[in-house]
Amino acid sequence: MSAFALAPLPSLFVPRPIPYRRAGMASGPARHPSEEDMPRRREDAAGGGAAAVNPLAGLLGRIAAGDQAAFRKLYELVSPLLYAVALRITGERALAADALQEAFIQVLNRSSRFDPARGSAEAWLVSLVRYRALDIVRGRRREVLGFEPEDAALDEPDALARLSADEDGAALRTCLEALEADRRRLIELAFLDGFSQAELAQRLGMPLGTVKSSIRRGLLKLRECLGR
Amino acid sequence: MSGSDDERDLAAAEYVLGTLDAASARALARAAETDPALAGAIAAWERRLAPLARLVPPVAPPADLWPRIAAATPTATPMTSGRPLARAWQSVRFWRVSTAGALALAAVLAGLIVLRPSQHPMYMASLTPMRSHTPMFVAEMRPGGPLMVHALSPVTVAEGKALELWAKQARSGAMIPLGVVPASGRRVRMIADLGAGTELMISLEPAGASPSGASDRAPRGPMLYEGRLVRID
I need a labelling partner for B210 at 20 to 30 A (CA). Which of A12, B9, B15, B145 fits? Predict the structure, then answer.
């Protein structure tokens, strides 16, 4: 599948109010990205290329060319998603902010390395943030007492609708739903919460060997199902 | 795919999933720098799995995060160019290191306070995790005075949870709630009339469940730290 087939991802961010705020979060009004923040269609049509289809990829291209406004715009568009991802893994606002800061510095330094033909811009950005967040939690071990992942959110209609917002996500959802419940849960918890195999085994009361083999079988099934 | 290709692809998948241990993850990332096939396998798995991130509801980042990023990226703002000191001051690592230093200093100061000779008899307890001997909190009290509790090293408590101090009555075994202990390590005063031999415990409770005069309340969450008050003359 070509990267050009991707639906415009920012549809994820535009209309949706941020569903909840944790107590003690910055109290200033959150700035929701609006249509005005999107690269204008006319410009994109004139410029052609991936930007017309995927604004995030277009922004990364402009950042690589030294466009500072594009860097800011990218931050406004994706930081709520990326911050949520980092917060979920680190379990702490300050650490999530550290992960995001490090990731955005990398975005600036590596934007020229992003190749829209090889993958989606969202996947590239999500990966940068996840690796930074995982480095942080691995570095200090998980020492947040009583931190519980919010499993319940995963099966909410809203969450599933967000997952299916583009072709990649819809395919992943179909293939996840075809997995055995245990395997699906292990893969989701590992990806979203950054749990190691040992932590997963402890949390779910499963033997370590079972966790390891279930994850591997689940991943092989996913690869087969996604067919690429 | 051959068996070894399959194995490499699975390693790439586990790397992206985040389940490799730190050493294996570093080794794989290094190998990918010089191995385009491995880098491609990682990119393919990133693309397959990344949509999962959308299962997490978006959260607005703190308002001060963009200014921090702008300050740390010289091309995003001209303000920091050519000022290495200013940049170091704003870098995440700098703050992490200095915070660690400040906390170590705080622990030493706490030790001095605890070990300071006193003219009066005192009661002290060091509270350690259930399966460890490293003290995490120290409680001290003069006869008839308030119980002072402070943390020796930083403790992080998840949102919606709180640490609560309890005293176990020697005779009845009843648990008396003494109040919430701030995880930040500040010294707190707790009014209590306790004596030597009293067992102190800290449990993890839902936030907001702290006692409001109800002395018959029992701990709901797990006991995390315990220690016994001893008399020091």
Answer: B145
Which whole number is the average pLDDT over A8-13? Answer: 36
Q: For A59-83, write each residue's pLDDT tens digit.
A: 999 998 888 899 999 999 999 999 9
Contact B183, B171 (CB under 8 A): no
What is this model's ipTM? 0.73
Say if the Cβ atoms of A216 and B50 lie within 8 Å.
Answer: no
A223, A224, A225, best to mutate vs chain B, most B CBs in 10 Å: A223
Which structural domain range is residue A96 located in?
Answer: 7-16+51-146
Interchain contact, B61 vs A228, CB within 8 Å: no
pTM score, two decimals?
0.56
- Range 45-104 of A in CB contact (< 8 A) with B: 66, 68, 71-72, 75, 79-81, 83-85, 87-89, 91-93, 96-98, 100-102, 104
Question: Does a structural domain hold residue A189?
Answer: yes
| Residue A226 contacts residue B48 (beta carbons within 8 Å) | yes
Surface of A (149-178) touching B: CB under 8 A: 153-154, 158-160, 162-163, 165-166, 168-169, 172-173
Where do the domains of chain B lie, and which CATH numbers do they carry?
3-55 (no CATH), 119-232 (2.60.40)
If you measure CA to CA, which chain A residue comes closest to B77? A68
* Residue A8 and residue A54 in contact, taking contact as beta carbons nearer than 8 Å: yes
Model confidence over B45-81: pLDDT tens digits?
999 999 999 999 899 999 999 999 988 876 544 333 3
Q: Which of B50, B55, B158 sits opposite A123 (nearest CB)?
A: B50
Residue B217 confidence (pLDDT) above 80: no
How far is residue A128's CA from residue A75's CA, in Å, rounded to a whole number? 14
Cα(B127)–Cα(B139) distance, integer angstroms: 8
A228/B72 touch (CB, cutoff 8 Å), yes or no: no
- Average pLDDT of chain A is 75
